[in-house]
Amino acid sequence: MTTLTAKDKQTVKAFWAKVSGKSEDIGADAVARMLVVYPQTKIYFSHWPDQSPNSPAARKHGITVMMGVGDAVTKIDDLKEGLKELSQLHAFTLRVDPGNFKILSHNILVVMAVMFPTDFTPEVHVSLDKFLAAVSLALSEKYR
Amino acid sequence: MPENSVSADLQTGSDKMVEWTDFERDTIKDIFSRIEYDVVGPAALARCLVVYPWTQRYFGGFGNLYNAAAIKGNPMVSKHGTTIMHSLDRAVKNLDDIENTYTELSVLHSEKLHVDPDNFKLLADCLTIVVAAQLGKEFTGEVQAAFQKFLAVVVSSLGRQYH
Lengths: 144, 163
Prior knowledge:
The complex is a heterodimer. Chain A is mainly α. Chain A has a single domain (6-140), classed as Globin-like, CATH 1.10.490.10. Helices cover 69% and strands 0% of the residues of chain A. Chain A is built from seven helices and no strands. In chain A, helix 1 (6-19) crosses helix 7, helix 2 packs across helix 3 and helix 2 (23-37) crosses helix 6 (99-115). Chain B has a single domain (22-159), classed as Orthogonal Bundle (Globin-like). Helix content of chain B is 63%, strand content 0%. Chain B starts with 21 loop residues before the first helix and ends in a 5-residue tail after the last helix. Classes of the chains: A mainly alpha, B mainly alpha. At the A-B interface, helix 2, helix 6 and helix 7 of A face helix 2, helix 3, helix 7 and helix 8 of B.
Protein backbone atom coordinates (compact mmCIF):
# COMPACT_ATOMS: atom_id res chain seq x y z
CA MET A 1 0.00 0.00 0.00
CA THR A 2 2.87 2.38 0.64
CA THR A 3 5.30 1.89 -2.23
CA LEU A 4 6.06 5.34 -3.57
CA THR A 5 6.30 5.61 -7.34
CA ALA A 6 8.78 7.92 -9.02
CA LYS A 7 5.85 10.24 -9.70
CA ASP A 8 4.84 10.23 -6.03
CA LYS A 9 8.38 11.17 -4.97
CA GLN A 10 8.56 13.93 -7.57
CA THR A 11 5.16 15.28 -6.53
CA VAL A 12 6.04 15.24 -2.82
CA LYS A 13 9.39 16.95 -3.37
CA ALA A 14 7.88 19.63 -5.60
CA PHE A 15 5.02 20.33 -3.18
CA TRP A 16 7.39 20.35 -0.20
CA ALA A 17 9.60 22.88 -1.97
CA LYS A 18 6.53 25.14 -2.27
CA VAL A 19 5.34 24.81 1.32
CA SER A 20 8.44 24.18 3.43
CA GLY A 21 8.86 27.90 4.10
CA LYS A 22 5.72 27.67 6.24
CA SER A 23 6.71 24.38 7.84
CA GLU A 24 6.61 25.79 11.38
CA ASP A 25 3.08 27.13 10.99
CA ILE A 26 1.97 23.90 9.32
CA GLY A 27 3.33 21.79 12.14
CA ALA A 28 1.93 24.00 14.87
CA ASP A 29 -1.54 24.02 13.29
CA ALA A 30 -1.51 20.25 12.69
CA VAL A 31 -0.62 19.47 16.30
CA ALA A 32 -3.15 22.02 17.60
CA ARG A 33 -5.91 20.45 15.51
CA MET A 34 -4.93 16.97 16.66
CA LEU A 35 -5.23 18.00 20.31
CA VAL A 36 -8.66 19.59 19.71
CA VAL A 37 -10.24 17.12 17.28
CA TYR A 38 -8.75 13.95 18.83
CA PRO A 39 -8.53 14.83 22.52
CA GLN A 40 -7.36 11.31 23.41
CA THR A 41 -3.97 12.30 21.93
CA LYS A 42 -3.45 14.69 24.85
CA ILE A 43 -2.40 11.74 27.01
CA TYR A 44 1.03 11.85 25.41
CA PHE A 45 1.55 15.39 26.64
CA SER A 46 0.49 15.12 30.27
CA HIS A 47 3.95 16.40 31.17
CA TRP A 48 3.20 19.80 29.62
CA PRO A 49 2.06 22.34 32.20
CA ASP A 50 -0.14 23.89 29.52
CA GLN A 51 -1.89 21.33 27.30
CA SER A 52 -3.91 23.86 25.35
CA PRO A 53 -3.59 23.60 21.56
CA ASN A 54 -1.88 26.98 21.12
CA SER A 55 0.51 26.73 24.04
CA PRO A 56 4.23 27.34 23.42
CA ALA A 57 4.89 23.63 24.11
CA ALA A 58 2.34 22.57 21.49
CA ARG A 59 3.75 24.96 18.92
CA LYS A 60 7.29 23.80 19.62
CA HIS A 61 6.18 20.22 19.20
CA GLY A 62 4.52 21.01 15.89
CA ILE A 63 7.77 22.57 14.69
CA THR A 64 9.72 19.48 15.77
CA VAL A 65 7.31 17.13 14.00
CA MET A 66 7.41 19.11 10.77
CA MET A 67 11.21 19.22 10.82
CA GLY A 68 11.03 15.43 10.96
CA VAL A 69 8.68 15.38 7.98
CA GLY A 70 10.99 17.69 6.04
CA ASP A 71 13.92 15.44 6.87
CA ALA A 72 11.92 12.44 5.67
CA VAL A 73 11.43 14.16 2.30
CA THR A 74 15.22 14.19 1.86
CA LYS A 75 15.33 10.49 2.75
CA ILE A 76 12.39 9.56 0.57
CA ASP A 77 14.34 6.88 -1.29
CA ASP A 78 14.96 4.83 1.85
CA LEU A 79 12.67 5.87 4.66
CA LYS A 80 13.19 2.68 6.69
CA GLU A 81 16.92 3.29 6.92
CA GLY A 82 16.67 7.07 7.09
CA LEU A 83 14.17 7.13 9.95
CA LYS A 84 15.78 4.28 11.91
CA GLU A 85 16.71 6.40 14.91
CA LEU A 86 13.39 8.21 15.01
CA SER A 87 11.71 4.84 14.96
CA GLN A 88 13.75 3.71 17.94
CA LEU A 89 12.80 6.90 19.76
CA HIS A 90 9.08 6.42 19.11
CA ALA A 91 9.17 2.69 19.87
CA PHE A 92 11.20 2.58 23.05
CA THR A 93 11.13 6.02 24.59
CA LEU A 94 7.94 7.72 23.46
CA ARG A 95 5.90 4.56 22.89
CA VAL A 96 3.32 6.35 20.80
CA ASP A 97 0.63 3.97 19.59
CA PRO A 98 1.11 3.89 15.80
CA GLY A 99 -2.60 4.56 15.24
CA ASN A 100 -1.80 8.13 16.18
CA PHE A 101 0.55 8.58 13.20
CA LYS A 102 -2.51 8.30 10.99
CA ILE A 103 -4.34 10.88 13.06
CA LEU A 104 -1.50 13.39 12.84
CA SER A 105 -1.08 12.68 9.10
CA HIS A 106 -4.77 13.46 8.56
CA ASN A 107 -4.39 16.76 10.34
CA ILE A 108 -1.29 17.64 8.31
CA LEU A 109 -3.40 17.08 5.17
CA VAL A 110 -6.20 19.29 6.54
CA VAL A 111 -3.69 22.08 7.21
CA MET A 112 -2.32 21.74 3.65
CA ALA A 113 -5.89 22.17 2.36
CA VAL A 114 -6.44 25.23 4.57
CA MET A 115 -3.13 26.91 3.74
CA PHE A 116 -2.62 25.85 0.12
CA PRO A 117 -6.10 25.27 -1.34
CA THR A 118 -5.09 25.65 -4.99
CA ASP A 119 -1.82 23.71 -4.76
CA PHE A 120 -3.21 20.84 -2.70
CA THR A 121 -4.88 19.17 -5.68
CA PRO A 122 -6.20 15.58 -5.54
CA GLU A 123 -3.01 14.45 -7.31
CA VAL A 124 -0.82 16.09 -4.68
CA HIS A 125 -3.15 14.79 -1.94
CA VAL A 126 -2.78 11.14 -2.97
CA SER A 127 1.02 11.32 -3.21
CA LEU A 128 1.36 13.18 0.08
CA ASP A 129 -1.06 10.75 1.79
CA LYS A 130 1.03 7.82 0.52
CA PHE A 131 4.23 9.55 1.66
CA LEU A 132 2.92 10.19 5.17
CA ALA A 133 1.74 6.58 5.35
CA ALA A 134 5.23 5.44 4.31
CA VAL A 135 6.78 7.70 6.96
CA SER A 136 4.38 6.27 9.55
CA LEU A 137 5.35 2.75 8.53
CA ALA A 138 9.05 3.57 8.80
CA LEU A 139 8.44 5.09 12.24
CA SER A 140 6.69 1.87 13.31
CA GLU A 141 9.54 -0.32 12.08
CA LYS A 142 11.28 -0.85 15.43
CA TYR A 143 8.14 -1.34 17.53
CA ARG A 144 8.19 -5.13 17.66
CA MET B 1 -10.88 1.17 12.75
CA PRO B 2 -10.37 0.63 9.02
CA GLU B 3 -6.84 1.14 7.83
CA ASN B 4 -7.36 4.19 5.71
CA SER B 5 -9.56 6.52 7.67
CA VAL B 6 -9.41 8.52 10.87
CA SER B 7 -13.01 9.68 11.10
CA ALA B 8 -14.20 8.68 14.55
CA ASP B 9 -16.15 5.50 15.00
CA LEU B 10 -19.38 6.22 16.82
CA GLN B 11 -21.59 3.71 18.49
CA THR B 12 -25.08 5.03 18.06
CA GLY B 13 -27.36 2.37 19.49
CA SER B 14 -31.02 3.05 19.07
CA ASP B 15 -31.29 3.78 22.77
CA LYS B 16 -28.60 6.46 22.71
CA MET B 17 -29.20 9.89 21.20
CA VAL B 18 -26.32 11.85 19.81
CA GLU B 19 -25.98 15.05 21.77
CA TRP B 20 -25.01 18.26 20.07
CA THR B 21 -23.74 21.37 21.79
CA ASP B 22 -25.07 24.73 20.60
CA PHE B 23 -21.68 25.44 19.09
CA GLU B 24 -21.79 22.19 17.12
CA ARG B 25 -25.33 22.81 15.83
CA ASP B 26 -24.56 26.38 14.83
CA THR B 27 -21.26 25.41 13.24
CA ILE B 28 -22.71 22.58 11.17
CA LYS B 29 -25.61 24.71 9.94
CA ASP B 30 -23.26 27.58 9.21
CA ILE B 31 -20.90 25.44 7.15
CA PHE B 32 -23.72 24.04 5.05
CA SER B 33 -25.23 27.47 4.49
CA ARG B 34 -21.93 28.75 3.16
CA ILE B 35 -20.67 26.00 0.90
CA GLU B 36 -21.90 25.57 -2.65
CA TYR B 37 -23.28 22.06 -2.94
CA ASP B 38 -22.54 21.80 -6.65
CA VAL B 39 -18.91 22.77 -6.09
CA VAL B 40 -18.03 20.97 -2.88
CA GLY B 41 -19.89 17.75 -3.67
CA PRO B 42 -18.27 17.12 -7.05
CA ALA B 43 -14.84 18.13 -5.69
CA ALA B 44 -15.12 15.77 -2.72
CA LEU B 45 -16.29 12.78 -4.75
CA ALA B 46 -13.66 13.37 -7.44
CA ARG B 47 -10.97 13.65 -4.77
CA CYS B 48 -12.13 10.39 -3.21
CA LEU B 49 -11.94 8.59 -6.57
CA VAL B 50 -8.39 9.91 -7.09
CA VAL B 51 -7.00 9.49 -3.57
CA TYR B 52 -8.66 6.10 -2.96
CA PRO B 53 -8.91 4.69 -6.47
CA TRP B 54 -10.47 1.39 -5.37
CA THR B 55 -13.66 3.36 -4.67
CA GLN B 56 -14.06 3.57 -8.44
CA ARG B 57 -15.47 0.04 -8.25
CA TYR B 58 -18.88 1.52 -7.49
CA PHE B 59 -18.93 3.77 -10.51
CA GLY B 60 -18.42 1.34 -13.37
CA GLY B 61 -21.29 2.90 -15.28
CA PHE B 62 -19.86 6.41 -15.04
CA GLY B 63 -17.65 6.23 -18.12
CA ASN B 64 -14.16 7.71 -18.23
CA LEU B 65 -12.42 7.62 -14.82
CA TYR B 66 -9.05 6.98 -16.39
CA ASN B 67 -7.10 9.76 -14.70
CA ALA B 68 -7.57 12.69 -12.34
CA ALA B 69 -8.47 15.11 -15.15
CA ALA B 70 -11.07 12.72 -16.55
CA ILE B 71 -12.57 12.18 -13.10
CA LYS B 72 -12.75 15.91 -12.41
CA GLY B 73 -14.43 16.56 -15.76
CA ASN B 74 -16.83 13.63 -15.60
CA PRO B 75 -20.42 14.95 -15.53
CA MET B 76 -21.80 11.84 -13.81
CA VAL B 77 -19.27 12.25 -11.00
CA SER B 78 -20.29 15.90 -10.62
CA LYS B 79 -23.98 15.06 -10.58
CA HIS B 80 -23.51 12.36 -7.97
CA GLY B 81 -21.34 14.62 -5.84
CA THR B 82 -24.14 17.20 -5.78
CA THR B 83 -26.70 14.49 -4.94
CA ILE B 84 -24.58 13.47 -1.95
CA MET B 85 -24.54 17.05 -0.64
CA HIS B 86 -28.32 17.29 -0.84
CA SER B 87 -28.56 14.08 1.16
CA LEU B 88 -26.24 15.53 3.78
CA ASP B 89 -28.51 18.55 3.85
CA ARG B 90 -31.31 16.30 5.11
CA ALA B 91 -29.08 15.20 7.95
CA VAL B 92 -28.29 18.84 8.81
CA LYS B 93 -32.02 19.56 8.96
CA ASN B 94 -32.59 16.50 11.19
CA LEU B 95 -29.58 16.60 13.48
CA ASP B 96 -31.47 14.96 16.31
CA ASP B 97 -32.61 12.00 14.25
CA ILE B 98 -30.02 11.31 11.58
CA GLU B 99 -30.29 7.59 12.14
CA ASN B 100 -33.95 7.37 11.16
CA THR B 101 -33.55 9.97 8.43
CA TYR B 102 -31.00 7.68 6.78
CA THR B 103 -32.73 4.32 7.19
CA GLU B 104 -33.72 4.03 3.53
CA LEU B 105 -30.38 5.33 2.29
CA SER B 106 -28.62 2.77 4.44
CA VAL B 107 -30.73 -0.04 3.01
CA LEU B 108 -30.10 1.28 -0.52
CA HIS B 109 -26.31 1.38 -0.06
CA SER B 110 -26.29 -2.07 1.49
CA GLU B 111 -28.84 -4.07 -0.46
CA LYS B 112 -28.78 -2.44 -3.87
CA LEU B 113 -25.46 -0.65 -4.27
CA HIS B 114 -23.40 -3.08 -2.16
CA VAL B 115 -21.03 -0.37 -0.93
CA ASP B 116 -18.45 -1.40 1.66
CA PRO B 117 -19.34 0.89 4.59
CA ASP B 118 -15.65 1.55 5.27
CA ASN B 119 -15.74 3.60 2.08
CA PHE B 120 -18.15 6.12 3.63
CA LYS B 121 -15.32 7.20 5.93
CA LEU B 122 -12.99 7.71 3.00
CA LEU B 123 -15.48 10.05 1.34
CA ALA B 124 -16.03 11.82 4.68
CA ASP B 125 -12.28 12.48 4.96
CA CYS B 126 -12.21 13.91 1.42
CA LEU B 127 -15.21 16.11 2.19
CA THR B 128 -13.38 17.43 5.28
CA ILE B 129 -10.37 18.33 3.13
CA VAL B 130 -12.52 20.10 0.49
CA VAL B 131 -14.48 22.08 3.08
CA ALA B 132 -11.18 22.99 4.79
CA ALA B 133 -9.90 24.34 1.47
CA GLN B 134 -13.11 26.33 0.97
CA LEU B 135 -13.26 27.87 4.43
CA GLY B 136 -9.53 28.39 4.94
CA LYS B 137 -8.58 29.85 8.31
CA GLU B 138 -12.22 29.84 9.41
CA PHE B 139 -11.99 26.06 9.47
CA THR B 140 -10.50 26.15 12.96
CA GLY B 141 -9.78 23.08 15.07
CA GLU B 142 -13.10 23.52 16.88
CA VAL B 143 -15.02 23.83 13.61
CA GLN B 144 -13.17 20.77 12.27
CA ALA B 145 -14.15 18.80 15.38
CA ALA B 146 -17.83 19.68 14.96
CA PHE B 147 -17.80 18.88 11.24
CA GLN B 148 -16.02 15.56 11.73
CA LYS B 149 -18.44 14.60 14.51
CA PHE B 150 -21.37 15.31 12.17
CA LEU B 151 -19.79 13.19 9.43
CA ALA B 152 -19.10 10.38 11.90
CA VAL B 153 -22.79 10.29 12.86
CA VAL B 154 -23.77 10.28 9.17
CA VAL B 155 -21.32 7.48 8.39
CA SER B 156 -22.52 5.44 11.35
CA SER B 157 -26.17 5.90 10.34
CA LEU B 158 -25.45 4.88 6.77
CA GLY B 159 -23.86 1.69 8.03
CA ARG B 160 -26.69 0.88 10.43
CA GLN B 161 -28.89 -1.26 8.16
CA TYR B 162 -26.14 -3.55 6.92
CA HIS B 163 -26.49 -7.14 7.96
